[in-house]
Queue: 3 jobs
Job 1
Amino acid sequence: MELEGKVGLVTGGTSGIGRETAILFAKAGAKVVVAGRRAPDGEETIELVRAAGSDGLFVKTDVSKASEVEALVQKVVERFGRLDVAFNNAGIEGAWVPIVRQSEEDWDRTIDVNLKGIWLCLKYEIRQMLKQGKGGAIVNMASIMGLIGSAGAAAYSASKHGVIGLTKTAALENARRGIRINAVCPAAVEAPMADRVFGAPKVHKFVLSCHPIGRFGRPEEIAEAVLWMCSDRASFMTGQSLVLDGGFLAGPNSPS
């Protein structure tokens, strides 16, 4: 019960890693607020949170809009009185095309959700934690694509590189105030986004071969790492990017 008595927030909690993290937060004793754009899926996550033995609330939110993020944090406090831990997970893949074919609209939307969205979440989450004066823990969703480049993924990769830099800066600004801020960097995970990006059989086979462990990650494996980073067991960790990649970055990507 690492989060007993605490209040957690998970953005992008309607499926995949976000949903599994919300459930784990609940099992660890936290009350959980889930944010996302798909209300039916979000309410389903809250049912799973309650089945795990805790209380929860879904708030429909577009994290690229400041007014909605500010309102989200206000609703967390109105319902549960405080905010102790947060997982800023909401993100989109955008269009994976060469730079010369990428539209300005797609670039802007990908950066707005994946990078500006996390900046906005940090802004209002940290403000609330500072107001409470008892510290807190935040984990941002980055990616191994924030550590390397990949042909055809300019906007996505740029957004995730930005998340890592943003995480380090926010951690430095708040370390002495008791707020720890880290990022998680998965490789391909068995989730809806991977299905969309790597769904074609030949693409799936190639990407799978780049993971020496022989499979994609599972959402619950990433969620376990997020829970640990949000718990007191990770009390000496801040400003870091934790890679969970099945060996992807251990050496040259030599498909086998």
Note: The first strand starts at residue 7 and ends at 11.
Job 2
Amino acid sequence: MNVALRGVAKTFNGKQAPLVALNPITLDVATGEFVCLIGPSGCGKSTLLRLIADQMAPTTGDVRLDDAPPGAARKAKHIAWMAQNPALLSWQTVLDNVRLPQRVNTAANRQNGQPARMATFAALDPTDLLRTVGLADFAQAYPGTLSGGMQQRAALARALATGAQLWLMDEPFAALDELTRETLADEVLRLWQTFRPTVLWVTHNIAEAARLADRVIVMSARPGTVKDIVAIVHPRPRDETAPETVAIIRRLRAVLRRDTEISTD
């Protein structure tokens, strides 16, 4: 699924005065591309994802997903969302949490008289999805008994169960320890290489962006807009200590520091 933004801006109504969150952004993301968004806190990265997900409307400009309004993709269940909070249902087992999107989507399609839409990887049995993310032995466990990293694995399996063509990832592993974060990010990368959805990934971790992305979109301080776009062409897997990756990390850090003193490590 391709993403096209044309002059997209967002202003919120504030108590004292309007708050300009995003200045106009024009951007294209190709089908199957892995794009990371970085920038200082409060620059509008999450707001931009919400505009793409049809969770809110832009103040000005136009968002298109496969040349259609984002509402069409949302209604067709083409969008998967992951954030820092895995938002698992505590009273449901891990397996039932993963099953939930397929149950809800199938019921909604039947109610609307539409055939169930199942992409290649959505057709996987939920048990197979849990095996894919390394949780096959915890299918009957409840979320409260799992570590934070395991809960995020379950959330990832649930995202896969939607069969979505577009993954919107809002710092999904930011609350985890460094080693778990790297392990899960590598798992997402492996799944992306297998299924090739389009991915937009928000992160504050420069090295993570350099390891994962085809392109890194660097945003300015609020009101956010695109400050620079850095393409990364050397092959994966990428070693953060390799000279070419170190050069990318240094370039990204230099771009971020041009107009902010906020730490971005």
Note: The first helix runs from residue 45 to 52.
Job 3
Amino acid sequence: MTIQLYCFGESGNAYKAALALQLSGLDWAPVKVDFFGGETRTPDYRSAVNNMGEAPVMVDGEVRLTQSGVIQDYVSEKSGKFGGRDSTERREILRWVLWDNHKLSSMAGVTRFLMNFLPEEKQPKEVIAFNQGRLKAAYEVLNNHLAGRDWIVGDGVTNADLSCCGYLYYPEPFGFDRSDWPHIDAWLTRLSEQPGWKAPYDLMPGSPADRA
């Protein structure tokens, strides 16, 4: 049975789940969510797809899961990939997934939205500047951690990598320049060389160009 992933191209959190599915080798297909058309705010979406009004949502037969980290964990359980070799690695992976959701992706997602998907006159400049300061601190943590190592945890791709990279492949400006962070840059290159890897707008339906 083909796994369905409700997602849209602009979402870095959806990309985390989509990339895990893509690299796992599991049979899956995207289902486009019209986020910018307000689909996730409709009663139908909240009652039939996700009562939290969010994407991504993964459906595998009777299994329905939300939140990218939970979906990644399910993909690991089903495919045997990305979950670590033992309990020590699994805990370390979880540590980085939680860190990413709080310190990196949360700031990157909001900042990218404010800078690129709001009209210029509605962009809160002070909030953006504050967020970019928080992001710089997160980039420093990740860049320093990657010095002298290929992957965030262990000797191969794990959910730690697939979580932390979620927003860093997007082309829209939000205060991240790969050339400023050489260890992150090299890591993103290694990850993009994995068989089956695709950039967000190539992997999921929907992009800013569709609304231009």
Note: Strands lie at 3-7, 28-32, 57-60, 63-66.
